[in-house]
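> call design_seq(struct)
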């Protein structure tokens, strides 16, 4: 553990010596203040740009740090100008760099040469940050007036109304925050109860009709009712059209069947009469032909839904019906 206590010798007198540094004859900054009587303070200085040493002509990169002698050499208005004197680590040469508050930069004074890496904004489509040309003419008063007029119009037409709207909105919401919060919370509770009741009703309907749980039911309102009624009317009309077409098709089929049945029965009756006349007027054959004719007429009047049975095989074998 690092110790933070200081050793005070027995002959130390705070009233006489004042501090341990004065007692030991040292400065508070230690060896850094060995030239403080000359106005020089040893500081850690980092090169702000690339340079070439003027003694050994070696390149020294930006960011290399030195123990530099810092000294105040003047003022630019109220801003002090400092000088940093460093010793090259590759030779015994010294170089000096000063601050330039006027142009906000560092300048190599002696002992080295700065690498020219300046970027001119004007040559690259930009604008100069600091204009220090003493030969520059006066500013165009009309351009300055136009710029100030545009800025004033923008402030009056855009910025001030926007600030007033924000201020009114802030006053509206901060006038009575408790009342607004109470009203919003009450509305939220009422809406929450309505949503819960709707969810329970939807779950009941899904459980009764066996609907899937992920199915989203439509809210019952006037618009949904009107839409459902319209769909029901369309489905009913389509069903009636299908039933009507089906009836017409069945009626057309029934109209064709009786005519064919009547023609076949008439042909059989004529053959039976011809056979009866050729056999000498058998009364059994005549009765048979009469019964067949009556049956054919009844079948035609009903609609031809039934068909006549063929002659009985027993009667044919017993000889009651004679074949020609």
């Amino acid at each position: 553990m690092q110790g933070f206590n200081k050793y005070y010798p027995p002959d130390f007198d705070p009233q006489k010596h004042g501090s341990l540094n004065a007692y030991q004859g040292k400065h508070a900054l230690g060896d850094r203040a060995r030239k403080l009587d000359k106005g020089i303070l040893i500081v850690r200085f980092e090169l702000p740009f690339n340079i070439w040493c003027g003694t050994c002509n070696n390149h020294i990169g930006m960011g290399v740090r030195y123990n530099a002698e810092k000294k105040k050499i003047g003022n630019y208005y109220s801003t002090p100008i400092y000088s940093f004197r460093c010793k090259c680590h590759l030779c015994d040469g010294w170089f000096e760099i000063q601050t330039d508050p006027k142009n906000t930069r560092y300048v190599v004074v002696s002992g080295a040469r700065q690498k020219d890496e300046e970027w001119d904004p004007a040559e690259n489509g930009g604008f100069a940050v600091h204009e220090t040309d003493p030969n520059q003419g006066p500013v165009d008063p009309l351009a300055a007036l136009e710029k100030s007029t545009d800025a004033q119009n923008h402030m009056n037409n855009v910025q001030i109304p926007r600030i007033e709207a924000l201020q009114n909105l802030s006053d509206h919401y901060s006038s009575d925050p408790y009342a607004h919060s109470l009203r919003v919370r009450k509305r939220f509770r009422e809406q929450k109860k309505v949503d819960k009741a709707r969810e329970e009703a939807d779950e009941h309907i899904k459980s009764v009709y066996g609907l899937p749980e992920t199915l989203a039911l439509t809210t019952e309102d006037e618009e949904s009712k009107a839409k459902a009624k319209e769909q029901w009317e369309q489905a009913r009309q389509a069903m009636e059209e299908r039933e009507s077409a089906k009836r017409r098709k069945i009626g057309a089929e029934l109209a064709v069947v009786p005519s064919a049945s009547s023609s076949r029965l008439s042909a059989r009756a004529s053959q039976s009469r011809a056979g009866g006349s050729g056999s000498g007027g058998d009364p059994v054959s005549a009765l048979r032909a009469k019964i067949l004719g009556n049956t054919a007429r009844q079948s035609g009047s009903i609609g031809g839904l039934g068909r006549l049975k063929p002659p009985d095989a027993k009667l044919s074998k017993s000889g009651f019906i004679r074949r020609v």
